[in-house]
Structure formats: C-alpha cells, structure tokens
Amino acid sequence: MLHKLHLSEDDLHIYLHKLLTHPAVWTDACGTILDSNARLTSLTEMHDLTECTLDDLFPEHPLTVDASGCIGPESARPIELRTGSGALLKGYRTVYFAETDEREYRLVVLHDFAAAGPSLLQQFAGMFIKDVNMGVLLIDEHFTLVDISEMACRILGVDKARALYRPVDEVFEVVPEEHRLVQRTLLDGVVVRNHAVSWTNNAERYELLLDSNLLRDESGHIVGAYVMFKDVTNLRSLEQQVQRSDRLAMIGQIAAGTAHEIRNPLTSIKGFLQVLQRTFESSGMEKEFGFTELMLSEIDRINELVNEFLLLSKPRDVSYDRIDMSAVIREVLPIINNQAVLHNVTIRYQSVYQMPEVIADQSLLKQVFINLCKNGIEAMVTGGTLTVTERVDPAEQKVHVDIHDAGPGIPAFLIDKIFDPFFTTKENGTGLGLSVCQRIIHDIGGHIRVSSKGFGTTFTVSMPYVRS
Asked: Pick from 24, 47, 247, 283: CA 20 to 30 A from residue 92's CA?
C-alpha cells in the first residue's frame, strides 16, 4: 500500500508539530533527519536528532532502500526503539511519502509506543539514577558512559553534560590508568564487591566502597556494566578516630596511674644533680658541669613527656563555656608571632566579623591553636607565610579555622598516620602533639582535618557554633 501526502513545506511543518498526535520524524528521501516533533523527543529522550539518520534511530530495523538510494514506503511494521537511557520500547512504524513542488520527503510515524512505554522497573531505574544518594555509572558494551548520577559527578569531578556518551577513557583521561575508578576489565566480567578505594578531587579526599557488575540482555549477551559506590569518608574517619581515642585513653590511663611513680624519683635525681652541678661549677670542673647540664635537660624533657601523657586522658578540670573563637586566636597570635620571627615566618590572619560563639574550654582551645601554628612554622624551614583563616558555614552550622603553611607538604603515604600516638617526623618530637589536639577537639564535638597537595599543608579545625 502506498502512503502519499501532498503538502507544502510549511504545511508539513505544521502537520508534524501541531496536528500529528504520534511521535514522528521528517527526513529527506535518503533518510537524513531534517526535523522531529516533541513527542518523538520525549519518547527517545534524545533532544537533537538533526545530525542523525533513520538508520541511527532504528539500527536493528533498517528501512527498504531502492536502487537510487531512496527509502520506499512502508506499512505499519513492528519494531523496537532504544531510548537515550537504554530502555527498549516496542511499537509500530509507518513510512509515508511527502512531496512538494521542489523535493521529496519521508514522514516516519510511530504508533502504540505509549502503551509499550517504560516498565515499572525502567521507571524505577530512571528515578534511582536521579535521586539515589550513591555514585552510579552506567557503561555500554563499547565502554561509553551512558548515564551518571549527580553524586558521582560531584565526587568524581565530572561535568555530566560533557561526559555523557563519551568513552570512559576520555572522561577520566587526566587520571592515570591504574588509578581510574572504572577499568576496562569490567566488561570482561571482573565483578567487584565492597571494594574500598580512595579518590581525591582537588583538595577533597573521599573514601569509597565500590561495587560493579555486567549487564546482560534476555539472550545473555553483554550490553554494558554498572559501577556503584557509597561515600564512606565520614564512617572511615569516625572509625579511625574511635580507634585513636581508644589508644589514647589506654595510654592516658597508664600515664595517670604511673605519673607520680615516675615523677617522685625524677625529683630526687634532679635535686641531687643540681647539688652536684653547683659543686662542679665552684670547683672549676667544666667537663663534669657540662654532663650534669645535659642530664638536667633530659630530666626536664621526661617531665614534659609525662605531662603530655596526662593530657591524653580525658581532662578532669575542664570548664566548658561560650567562647569567642576570634578572641582566642587573637590571644594566641602574639605567642606564635615571637616564634615566627625566629624562623623568618610572617603571620597572616583573616578574621570574620562577629564570629559565632562555640562551647569549649578556652585554655585547651589555645593549646590546640598554639600546637598547630607551631607545627606550621617549624614546617617552613626556609621561612614563608603562615595563614590563619576563619570561616563560617551556616549550612552545617559550624565555624572553621584553617591554618595553612607554605612548607613542603606531607607525603600521601604519611598523611593518614599523623594523628597516631607517637608518630612523628621531627627528630626530637614525641608524636603526641597532634593526638592531644585531636582528642581535645573531638571532646568538644568538632574535628580536625588535614589536606596537603604537594606544596603546603592546611589543618582545618571545625566546631559547631551556638545559635544566637
């Protein structure tokens, strides 16, 4: 049966967009798409078809072509149509001749696709990608990114509009192949379950728990794969913090129980050494005097270490009050500035007007900032600038203080260990300063984070503020 329409181009345009109630596309005689109506756009989920041909639209159902390369008419024929999201729809297709005084066209009309639209499972899959609080990537059999969730875009640093329908290798081309989250081996059937990986996007580091598997059609053929991941950064951080707190509490309990047992003999030893030192000095025994000087300094060092041990246990005489964070920092700066001058370091302070108050112990908070600033100054061996910046985050209802140095930075393989008790890179360090700081801030209800990217290190102290 021959379907033929005699219309002008204006009439054909009106017919396609206003009068025709079915999804339809208008092509030239060879099948190059010239225009399509909104019903077809919503059905295929493809907003621009003008660069396509009918073979692109119906790759599994080519139309009849005559010897001159023109598409012939076609009565209603059952076909399958794959949408932009990968859903497979079934319906019918009819091809009409349409001619004007100048040229010949084809009008392809689709029928009964509304009844055979996306199934409940397909609708769920679409909403899952859009709404789920997980990273989801869908990949076809050619290793092309077909869809990606908003959370995955945010964590992986991907622009969705630019990434879709591009090879995965191009999407992550700036990432070394061995560190890419999505590997080609995925399409070879390599299944991943609860695989822990780390991902860094700018200065943010994420801990992810990843799953992936193949997608197959009804015949068992591979049609693609999926990758899903959950952001467990806070959980991992909390787990590590609990482990550190347990170790610190144990060390603190031991220290509290043995401190007086250590201090009593040390006091006696120090007293007798001071007597000997005066005797050596009056007798002109300079060599022996030097020995006692060295021993006394070592005893003082042991006393300082015992004091730091005692701070690891939960402080007993803590006074929690409403504290002006800016006032605490301004009190600390003169102390820090004296040490900065000795190391050729400049202090830069960026404050916030009317910083919200926090609930904390003022003396312990001073100890934290003095320790962090001191570490930053000592990291800049050749001098530099230590920047202390205040920030307020109304969304999280927290105040942040960033302490940034211009030192060489912390190597990636060490950054996870710096809060561990007794871990230190300093020649004379005890490895307890940062552990104590973290314990103090943790007891207040805040947290300390560190970021270091090749050059410079930033410690961020974050605490919930009090609503006014």
From this structure: 47
- pLDDT at residue number 2: 43
Neighbouring residues of 186: CB distance < 8 A, sequence distance ≥ 6: 139, 192, 212, 214, 225, 227
Which amino acid makes up residue 50? T
Query: CATH assignment of 321-464, given 3.30.565.10, 3.90.950.20, 3.30.2130.30, 3.40.50.2300?
Result: 3.30.565.10
d(CA 358, CA 108): 68
CATH topology of domain 120-231: Beta-Lactamase (3.30.450)
Please report where in the chains the tokens 């990432």 appear, as a residue.
175
Neighbours of 142 (CB within 10 A): 10
The SS3 call for residue 353 is coil
Q: What are phi and psi of 388, to 5 degrees?
A: -110, 115
pLDDT, tens only, 190-234: 778 877 777 777 667 777 888 888 888 777 788 888 888 888 776
Q: Tokens 């798409």 — which residue? A: 33
Helical (H) or strand (E) element with 146: strand 145-148
- Cα 368 from Cα 383, distance rounded (Å): 22
Q: Tell me the C-alpha distance between 55 and 37, whole Å.
A: 18
Q: What parts of the chain have a pLDDT lower than 70?
A: 1-7, 18-19, 45-47, 67-69, 72-73, 75-76, 84-87, 101, 113-132, 202-203, 234-261, 307-318, 421-431, 454, 468
Q: What is the CATH number of domain 4-111?
A: 3.30.450.20
Q: For 347-362, what is each residue's pLDDT tens digit?
A: 999 988 888 889 888 8
Query: What value does the CA radius of gyration of the chain take, rounded to a whole number of Å?
Result: 35
Name the amino acid, one letter, at 202.
Answer: N
List, for residues 393-443, the tens digit of each pLDDT value.
887 888 999 999 988 888 777 777 777 766 666 666 666 778 778 878 887
**Where are any strands of DSSP class E within 168-320?**
192-201, 204-216, 222-231
Contact partners, residue 372, CB within 8 Å, separation at least 6: 403, 437, 459, 461
d(CA 196, CA 191): 14
**Nearest Cα to Cα of residue 437 among 315, 301, 300:** 315
Residue 386 DSSP symbol: E
Beta bridge partners of 329: none
Contact assessment for residue 176 and residue 200, using Cβ atoms and an 8 Å cutoff: no
The CB-side HSE value for 5 (13 A sphere, CA atoms) comes to: 19
Report the distance separating Cα 404 and Cα 457, nearest Å.
6
